[in-house]
Amino acid sequence: MAERIRAFDWSRTPVGPIHDWPQSLRTAVGMLAAAPNPMVLLWGPEGVLIYNDGYARFAGRRHPELLGMGAREGWPEIADFNDGNIRRGLGGEAWSLRDQQLDLDRAGRPEPVWMDLDYAPVPDESGKPAGVMVFVTETTERVRAETLREQTNERLEIALSAGRGVGTWEWDLLTDRVVADARFAQIYGVDPTIARDGAPIAEFFKAMHPDDADRVGEEIARTVRTHEPFRAEYRLVQPDGEVRWVIAEGRIIADADGKAIRFPGVTFDTTDRREADAARAETATR
Predict the structure, then answer these.
(1) Among candidate residues 138, 159, 179, the one where a domain is terminated
(2) Distance CA 146, CA 144 (A)
(3) What contacts 64, CB < 8 A, 6 or more positions away?
(4) Given pLDDT bands bounded at 50, 70 and 90, which one contains residue 248?
(5) Same domain, yes or no: 81 and 98
């Protein structure tokens, strides 16, 4: 970006020819051009956009036309937002916004974007603020992952509160550790302390009926591979020999690269339902 900035015809903008720039502007631009993280300088009341390579990647398809534009022209979908921030910065204020959501058109259509924004006024030779430096850290992937996890946990809590849930579990796919609550541990025949601290998934599969183990294993592998929702019904053999039916439901949580990293879910005891269905079927055949 440093070469692009030097070659740009700034005489067509309110900033004026680059050879006429004040030292304060040259210093600010030199600092942002050398920085690895996304930074953009909004210069003057128009907020003329001067930015670095990191911000160029952040801007997507808006780069390189964005360079030299006023903030209102460059980002019309957030014109009022930028106008207000430019006024604050030129008023000498420094501030930060965390996980700020904005709808930006970076790929041909508006999409929600979350970011941390840190603003600092940039003074001219007189000491009066002449521009605003903005440090941009996109947090979209983290916010989406946290939102998905909250929604998943909320659904699990609703299921449990309905009175039919056996318990919740979460499988860390990277370390092969399943953490589960006491209700889940009990029906799977695992020490609640071990389940609370985490154990390999094989520890919980020991109670699975041998006729179901291969099928369930294949269904789990398919979910990890495709990220499709998981749902499987199978039998668990209790320590006293009793066989209980359960339904396990869960979903994959992936990282920013799309790699499956966590597998949370809930298990329901369906034994009573199956016994009731069997009783009704027997009655109907008499």
Answers:
(1) 138
(2) 5
(3) 4, 56
(4) very high
(5) yes
